[in-house]
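Board notes, transcribed. Complex of a protein with NAP.
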Amino acid sequence: MNYLVTGCSRGVGLEICRVLLSEGNMVYGVARSYTDEFKKLESEYSGYLYFKSIDLSDCENIHKNVFKEYVTNKIQLDGYVNNAAMAYDDIVTNLNIDKLKAMYNVNVFTPMMITKYVLRNMLLSKKKGSIIHISSISAHTGYKGLAMYASSKGALEAFSKDTAREWGQLGIRSNVVVPGFMETAMSASLTEDQKDRIYKRTSLKTATCVKSVAETVAFLLSDKACSITGQNVHVDNGTI
Ligand SMILES: NC(=O)c1ccc[n+]([C@@H]2O[C@H](COP(=O)([O-])OP(=O)(O)OC[C@H]3O[C@@H](n4cnc5c(N)ncnc54)[C@H](OP(=O)(O)O)[C@@H]3O)[C@@H](O)[C@H]2O)c1
């Protein structure tokens, strides 16, 4: 199977690549930085893992950068994982429109444009593909300082549900994985006290396991999940 995974350079995206590769798939990764961690995985799975450095904030040039110069229609896509994202954290009274737009470019507009071309690729090759968006528990429970970030994830959830409705007749599925708090670069600026307060809101009282998120993504991409579409699947340690 051929999969396009964004945000592959570290954290959840790198783990998704690792799980998909371990199942014998081909993975086309996108991020800005070509990290040592990614290179290590690339050497373990030579010929199965590819990388192109693309700044996904440039939503105007997505077709050229991703599809004309990298994942062309010669590559028949079976799935797309929209994992790359950035967090703009602040309280609403400090909202800055330029920062909000910059985050929406990466978290919402680019994934929507990529979905457009992924669907076209799948339609051309008559593939019953699967699309996964990575959301966040903050869109469901609410956290102080995350209103802008959470709103970008809420937009993706609505987009996914309606994509599922629009293309289900052709066998194309779209689902969302909703992770809880994970220990990655994105959450590295939180203090131990802030993390403890977040963990207290979960049933399992700990950070969400990155591998569990990646395994869920791989399951939803696979035929094992052939009857699952338009869903939000929470992998969040039972966050209340
Ligand atoms: N960490 C958490 O607690 C948490 C909780 C819930 C949901 N999530 C979601 O889980 C997903 C993965 O997050 P993570 O924790 O693994 O974060 P991370 O470690 O910060 O990784 C983010 C990935 O996105 C890529 N990226 C960011 N901006 C980009 C841009 N402009 N162009 C291209 N690539 C870009 C980064 O690559 P480069 O920097 O190399 O470009 C990196 O590979 C995200 O959708 C996030 O919103 C995270």
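The CA atoms of residues 60 and 125 lie 25 Å apart. The two ends are 36 Å apart (CA to CA).
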